[in-house]
Amino acid sequence: MARIPRACARIADSDAFTYFILGVILANAGVLALETYESVEREAGDLLSLLNDIFLVIFVIELVTRFVAVSANPRRFFSNGWNVFDFVVVAAAFVPGLRENATLLRLARLLRVVRVFRLLPDLRVFVVAVARSLPAVGTLALITVVVVFLYGMVGWVLYDEGDPAHFGDIGEAMLTMFVALSLENLPDNIERGREITGWTVPFYVSFALLAAFLLFNLFIGIVINSLEEARAIELARMQIEDEDPEDRRLAESVRELRRVVDKLEKEIAARGP
User: Fold this and answer.
1) Separation of alpha carbons 199 and 194, rounded Å
2) Cys staple from 29: which of 40, 108, 113, 173, with CB 3.0 to 4.6 Å?
3) Which residues in the chain belong to E strands, given as ranges?
4) Residue 81 and residue 86: Cα distance in Å, rounded?
């Protein structure tokens, strides 16, 4: 029986299988694109629907192959985030009542195209990097809101009467300063502001240095750091997948044994002498 999981693991890890599934995903995307043309939908709607069903069958077979490759162990299978994503995307097509709702059905089919991220290592790295950068980016976004609010309040004080269209209230002032983060309209802002107050140059120059340059550089640093971490994670994952299935099973058994030993040691220590 161990031959079947090993055979499925070899199939799932093979380049030919990966490229085949990638081709199916791209073909699925092409069919979805053709469905947006009314003339094509009228003339070949049944064929396109049949192709979508064939794609779904192939994706189900792929999912079953990957599941059997881990010895049909749900714990091992769902410990991989990409497997969870694939399962949700494929299983969504079998939700009761989905086929009766054209919008939800198209969205479910569209999600299959997103699976291309799983098959290409570079795209996986970017997805992992984005996910790992979210906490830091959220903190940076909060800092940006605070900076924009502070400069919006100062701008309201300086330009409330002279430029009410851009600084008439805190909402307009914050929107003006948020747009100014791009620095594209900075010369126009300075020219318009100098007609109102002499504090315009230090106001906008300090905003450009603090908000635009500093915050953007921090954002770039966060992204680069997340990319490096994501590459390390992807490399470690690929090394684990390249291991022989029997070696992975033995390593998992050793880790499980260590957990049991650690648990026993804690229980003995808790009982005391």
Assistant:
1) 8
2) 113
3) none
4) 9
For the chain, which residues make up each domain, given as ranges? 3-119, 124-242
Cα pseudo-dihedral 166, 169, 170, 176, rounded to 10? -10
Nearest CA among 168, 158, 165, 169 for reference residue 193: 158
CATH number given to 124-242: 1.10.287.70
Band (8; pLDDT cuts 50, 70, 90): confident
The rounded distance, in Å, linking the Cα atoms of 64 and 70 is: 10
Position with higher pLDDT, 230 vs 178: 178
For residue 121, pLDDT beyond 80: no
Q: How confident is the model at residue 1 (pLDDT cuts 50, 70, 90)?
A: low
Alpha-carbon span 46 to 52, nearest angstrom: 10
pTM tops 0.85, yes or no = no
Residue 172 CA to residue 168 CA, distance in Å, equals 6
Given CATH 3.40.190.10, say whether it is the number of domain 3-119.
Answer: no
Residue 246 has pLDDT above 90, yes or no: no
Q: How much of the chain exceeds pLDDT 70, in percent?
A: 87
CB atoms within 10 A of CB 91: 12
The single residue listed with the structure tokens 């300075």 is 190
**Which residue bears the tokens 């603090």?**
210
- DSSP three-state, residue 204: helix
